[in-house]
TrEMBL record:
The keyword Transmembrane applies. The chain crosses the membrane at residues 42-65. GO terms for biological process: GPI anchor biosynthetic process. It comes from Phyllostomus discolor (pale spear-nosed bat). One of its GO terms (cellular component) is glycosylphosphatidylinositol-N-acetylglucosaminyltransferase (GPI-GnT) complex. InterPro entries: PIG-Y. It comes from the Eukaryota. Keywords: Membrane, Transmembrane, Transmembrane helix. This is Phosphatidylinositol N-acetylglucosaminyltransferase subunit Y-like.
């Protein structure tokens, strides 16, 4: 069974946020330990930020193409 795009759009950030809260509760040096790229904590902070930025710039590019094509 494949999940639809709107379901994944809502589900993925919620799962990432749940993972972030789990890491924050389990790791004793949470804010200081997230600076190394070898840490899983670093990527749990990076993913929730990267996905909305990617979606924004993807839509920005799509709107630019639509406006350029119709003018």
């Amino acid at each position: 069974m494949f999940l639809s795009l709107p379901t994944l759009t809502v589900l993925f950030p919620l799962v990432s946020l749940a993972g972030l809260f789990y890491l924050a509760s389990m790791e004793e040096n949470f804010p200081q330990g997230c600076t190394s790229t070898a840490s899983l904590c670093f990527y749990s902070l990076l993913l929730p930020i990267t996905i909305p930025v990617y979606v924004f710039f993807h839509l920005w590019t799509w709107m630019g193409i639509k406006l350029f094509r119709h003018n």
